[in-house]
Amino acid sequence: MILFKNIGQLVTVGGRKPKTGLEMKELNIINDAYLIVENEQISDFGRKSKEFDESDFEKIIDVEGKVMMPGFVDPHTHFVFAGDRSQEFKMRLKGIPYIDILKKGGGILSTVKATRKSSKRKLYDLSQKRVEKFLSYGVTTVEGKSGYGLDKKTEIKQLEVMKEINEKENIDIISTFMGAHAVPKNYKNNSSGYIDYLIEEVMPEVSKKKLAEFCDVFCDEGAFSYQESKKILKAAKELGFKLKIHADEIKNTKASQLAGKLNAVSAEHLLKASDKGLTSLKENNVIAVLLPLTAFSLQEKYADARKMIEMKIPVALATDLNPGSSYSQSIPLLLSLAVMYMNMSPEEAISALTINAACALDKGDDIGSIEKGKRADLLVIDAPHYNHLFYNFGVNLVEKVFKNGNLVLDNNLTKRKI
Ligand code: NIG
Ligand code: FE
User: What are phi and psi of 312, to 5 degrees?
Assistant: First the structure.
């Protein structure tokens, strides 16, 4: 048994279901708290009222009056890739649109080239480094998508890298198959041929090897149409995948309506979603995963988080780490953008990056809040109040990360070692 004592502010967040509306503001805080971990799970927590017999515990951790909260969950990333697109970034700064670069064979297709060429070992090393950085920002569960292979071999290589990282590293990886990320060059002007290839040859293999829990499609202009996305996602559902959709990011293609219609677990981006699309999300309990770092990087208007929260759509946040539209895994910047430019309150932003993010991965029963029986994925924040995560903007305040109750990262120690 492990006892965490002297917790200044225990931000439990609370609950197992997605928070909506006013619930997103409730963080269920306990001041002057303790927390007990047993068998890698949270077994008890509360206000420091009773004295403990400290000899009952294998380990006692003094939180020194700081904040303790659940580990962050990042429910949307593309962290397994090779190569870089810094030249494209410069083109975008000059005003060339992201989608035009893709249409000319760059963008996603340029990362596909580099990822196909990369050995599995190299891809592992690149991805593992990114995962370590996530952990240093307090992310204890991260979703990752394939989609830089666009052929069976490379899609599986990406998913196998995620599986190995999940087994070896101190972070949980939830894998998503995203073969429908772009139409590869050898199927140019033959997207229906590519879709048949995905459905007949790639998806059954991914499913048989149990390499992905979710299937995602880039349903947008320059990628896959409404009808094409529907065909792929319906086939995915039959194979047992849960669904996600990159929806209405560049243009409104009614992808949000499709997410509702197919009962997707989540719809992502939603920069251009219509009221009808949002109503469909609401009516079908689809989680809206918003990606402020992408809007920032593409210099686009941010998703209308306020409207969604008022409509009682559960809102989650994610980094969308990828080499094109969001080459950042900065949780501090993400939180700042959410409160400064999306008008979310600090409390809403925290709910969005913990319990609602966990629910966007269908893991609300296991992670994303401090509840008895949940996994002890916990953070110590070097501050007396969670407000500092926003007030001290752009600064990583995560001091310690505990995974299943074990200390896996201490940013103080790292600094002292040097
Ligand atoms: O979420 N929109 C499609 N996919 C990614 C970008 C991937 C890339 O540009 O490499 C996104 O923005
Ligand atoms: Fe994405």
Answer: 70, 30
